[in-house]
Structure formats: C-alpha cells, structure tokens
C-alpha cells in the first residue's frame, strides 16, 4: 500500500542556507512550507566544530568568510542577532617558492619583479574581460564563444610566460574554485569574477571575500533560520524522486514518506540534483547542465595548538606555498586568540590525490608542511581536524559546482529557469557572489520570489524588510 503523502504549498529540497532562506521568505508570504534535508543537520556546506568551552571557540569546517560588499549575508547576520570579527592579518606573511621561504607584508606576495608584473597584468586583463559579462546571461557576451571554448589553463599558457607567475595564478584559481585551471571554462571564471566584483576581491582579506568571520561560526546562520522554521524542517529525509506536472509535485523520501505540494524548490548543488529521479524526465538542456557541472574538490585541514605561537614570531599565519601539497594557510584561531589554529587547504588535484591517502598519512604530510613553513613548534598540535567535502555524500565537493568549457554556451540558459512547478536555488544559481554564502542567500530569495509570484502569495512585506536591511 502506498504511503500517505503530507500536504504543503511548497516543498524545499535541502536545508542549506539557500533552502532555509527560501523557506523563511515563503512562510513570511503566508505559505505552508516543508523543508526536506537528507543530513541529520542543517547548514549544507557550512559546519561548525567546537575547539574550546566558550561559545565562540569555534572553527568552521566548511564555508566561513564574508566580505564587506556581500550585503545580503551581512544583513542576515544583523537580522539574526549575530556579529562578525575580522580575519587576522597582522604580521608578516610567508611564501614558499624555489625551495626557500620568504617573508612579506601586504597582499602582494614576494614573487620577484617579472612574475609579479605578469600576475598583475594577467589579473587586470581578466578583470577587463569580466566586465563584458552579463551575469544573468554570460553566454551572450561578445567574448563568450571564445572564452567558453578554452580552459583557464590554456589562457594562462598563452598569456603568462614565467613559471612562477603561472604557478601563482594556478594557486589563485585553486583557492577560489577548488578546481584545477585545466578543468575550468574561461567563461565561467570571467562570470565568477564579475559576480564578485574583481579577481582581487575574490582573493583579498582586507576589503575582500575573506575579510570577516561570524562569531560562533557560519553554521549559526542556518541553525538560527531552522529554529525559526521549527517543525517545518525535517532532517534525515533523503529525497529520491520528484514527480511534477500541472497539478504540482510529489516528492518521495528514501524512508517511504513524501510530500505533495503545489511547487518545489530544489536547493542542492546541481550535480546532486542530477542524481534525483524526475517524472517526467527533465528537458535535455537542464539534464545536460546537471551532468556537465562538477563540484570542486577541497579538504579543509586544521591543526590546533595551545596558543598561536606564530604571532610571537611576527607572523600573520597566512602563507602560500608553490611546492604544496597545501597551497594556502591562514590563522583560523577563534576571536579570543586561543586555542591557536592553523588552517590549510588541499584543493583541486591536490585534494583528489590526498583522498587516495589514509587520513593518518594525510595528517602527517600536512603537519610536515606546516612545520616546514612555521617552524618546529607546528609539529606538535594538540588536535587535528579535517573535512573532506568530496567524500561527503550530500555535498559531493566544494566550494561550489563549476562549468567546464562549452557548458555555459550549451546549457547555461537552464541554470535558473523553472520547469513547470520546479524551481532551482543554491549558490551556483546566484548572479551576485556566486559560490559564496551571499550568493546562496540571493538564490533563496529569488526562488522564493518566483514561487510566491506563481502562487499569488503576498511576499511584498518580506521583500521590503530585506531591502531595509540591505540599506543599512
């Protein structure tokens, strides 16, 4: 006998930030909403980890930073009664190149005059190209055909001569997209730069995407939203199939339960949305988009010490290594400064290679690299934690999904377009700060607006409230 389905106006698949924002806006518009989340927690690709007894002694195993131009996430922080604190960047930074470790101050690493000039020229060219992109329709740009026919790696080879500059740009690409330049469409890189404002803004701490952290951890955004939604959020509810048609949707859950609704918002990464079964099958353009989008590969690794000893040595904790395996390091200590936390990222090919190692071997290799950069005291952390997002079944990777060459041109028009009663959210669908927490919020607001409009619901009050927050 078939299971009896619950009834709602709207069912949201995924309790990450985008899905929860969409659900909140729809509830404010007077609609009955159910959120289905496969995990036993909310927050998607954000995840807090306690490193001490105080409420703010927390590190984030997933997305964590927000920047001053990310208006939506800053407004949500304010709305939820949370606060931010600056990412520490006081002291000298380190760069490892040519078998030596160099100290420098500011955001410009000590690459040498010629490589440094080449990196600056390359980034300026990419910024100029990005300004020709309409983030709503990247495939219509004058440069779209040529940019979508090549990888970022091929562009770097043609435009950058020195190996040091090429390596620096490779690390920059890995740091932002968690992808190798050889995998990434140049058009996708240009779209992403446009969505964030400039290449420098994606990379910078002061004034950039890494400027601030949320006190108590970024997952608090989702936890607070879920508290507001209460029993509307169902955990451990893995969606397997979505039937859709003129009469609405029927969403099936792996445990045999389900929800019947007038509309659905699918707020999970496109590659994971492509693993669901749809009846009827989705149009080829949408299905092809989900097949072609790939998740970045990242392992976020943290060594925890009694204190941030590197500060005593005049170091900021920020380091770049051209040798690897980890390329980027940060001081990720809580706001009070204890315990001391060194954060390392394994990204792209380095992450995929590390996933073939045992966690014990991976830890040993990372601690060796930290000791090489920060000295022998780094060899003895009191604790080590990591999160391999590519091994997480309901994320499939991080930081976000990207498009390879040709995908924007062939399938990009399907990224946000509703299909009957089906709507799409998630940071990958954002036009502003795509791939970031801010983009996730924008996508949830957009999808909720589409649904509220289609159902004739009163979403004006919620929209006006958001605009007031954004103006602050």
Largest sheet: 8 strands, mixed
Proportion of helical residues: 25-40%
Number of helices: 17
What is the strand tally?
Answer: 22
Shape: globular
Mean pLDDT: 95
Which structural class do you get from the secondary structure elements? alpha/beta
Radius of gyration: 22 Å
Low-confidence runs of at least 5 consecutive residues: 464-472
N- to C-terminal distance: 55 Å
Tell me the β content. 15-25%
Topology:
Layout: E1 6-13, H1 17-28, E2 33-36, E3 48-50, E4 58-60, E5 65-66, H2 71-79, E6 84-86, E7 92-97, E8 100-104, H3 113-130, H4 144-147, H5 152-159, H6 163-177, H7 186-196, H8 199-203, E9 212-214, H9 219-229, E10 233-234, E11 239-245, E12 248-253, E13 258-266, H10 270-273, E14 277-279, H11 284-292, E15 294-295, E16 298-305, H12 309-312, E17 315-321, E18 328-331, E19 340-347, H13 349-355, H14 359-374, E20 383-388, E21 401-402, H15 407-411, E22 422-424, H16 437-454, H17 460-470
Parallel strand pairs: 1-2, 1-13, 2-10, 7-17, 11-14, 13-22
Antiparallel strand pairs: 3-4, 5-9, 6-9, 7-8, 11-12, 12-13, 15-21, 16-19, 16-20, 17-18, 18-19
Question: Keywords, please?
Answer:
472 residues; alpha/beta; 8-stranded mixed β-sheet; 7-stranded mixed β-sheet; 22 strands; globular; disordered C terminus
């Amino acid at each position: 006998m078939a299971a009896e389905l619950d009834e709602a106006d709207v069912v949201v698949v995924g309790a990450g930030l985008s899905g929860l924002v969409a659900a909140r806006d729809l509830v404010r518009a007077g609609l009955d909403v159910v959120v289905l989340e496969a995990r036993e927690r909310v927050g998607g690709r954000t995840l807090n980890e306690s490193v001490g007894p105080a409420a703010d002694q927390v590190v984030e195993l997933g997305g964590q930073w927000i920047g001053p131009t990310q208006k939506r996430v800053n407004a949500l922080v304010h709305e939820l009664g949370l606060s931010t604190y600056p990412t520490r960047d006081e002291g000298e930074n380190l760069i490892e190149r040519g078998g030596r470790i160099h100290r420098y101050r500011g955001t410009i690493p000590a690459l040498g005059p010629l490589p440094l000039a080449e990196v600056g020229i390359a980034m300026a060219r990419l910024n100029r190209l990005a300004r020709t992109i309409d983030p709503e329709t990247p495939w219509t740009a004058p440069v779209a055909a040529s940019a979508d026919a090549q990888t970022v790696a091929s562009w770097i080879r043609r435009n950058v001569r020195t190996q040091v500059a090429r390596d620096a740009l490779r690390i920059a690409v890995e740091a932002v997209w968690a992808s190798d330049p050889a995998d990434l469409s140049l058009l996708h890189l240009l779209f992403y730069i446009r969505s964030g404002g400039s290449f420098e803004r994606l990379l910078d701490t002061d004034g950039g995407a890494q400027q601030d952290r949320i006190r108590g951890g970024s997952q608090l955004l989702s936890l607070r939203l879920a508290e507001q939604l209460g029993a509307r959020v169902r955990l451990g509810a893995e969606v397997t199939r979505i039937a859709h048609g003129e009469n609405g949707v029927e969403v099936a859950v792996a445990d045999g339960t389900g929800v019947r609704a007038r509309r659905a918002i699918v707020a999970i990464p496109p590659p994971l949305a492509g693993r669901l079964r749809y009846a009827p099958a989705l149009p080829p353009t949408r299905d092809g988009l989900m097949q072609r989008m790939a998740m970045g590969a990242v392992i976020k690794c943290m060594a925890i010490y009694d204190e941030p000893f590197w500060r005593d040595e005049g170091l900021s904790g920020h380091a770049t290594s051209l040798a690897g395996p980890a390329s980027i390091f940060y001081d990720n200590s809580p706001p009070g400064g204890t315990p001391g936390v060194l954060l390392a990222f394994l990204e792209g090919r380095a992450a995929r290679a590390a996933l073939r190692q045992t966690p014990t071997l991976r830890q040993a290799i990372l601690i060796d690299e930290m000791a090489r950069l920060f000295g022998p005291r780094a060899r003895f952390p009191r604790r080590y934690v990591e999160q391999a997002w590519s091994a997480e079944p309901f994320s499939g990777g991080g930081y976000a999904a990207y498009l390879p060459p040709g995908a924007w041109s062939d399938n990009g028009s399907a990224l946000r377009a509703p299909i009957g009663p089906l709507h799409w959210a998630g940071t990958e669908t954002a036009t502003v700060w795509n791939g970031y927490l801010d983009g996730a919020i924008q996508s949830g607001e957009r999808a909720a607006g589409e649904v509220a409009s289609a159902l004739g619901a009163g979403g004006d009050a919620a929209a006006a409230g958001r605009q007031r927050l954004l103006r602050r």
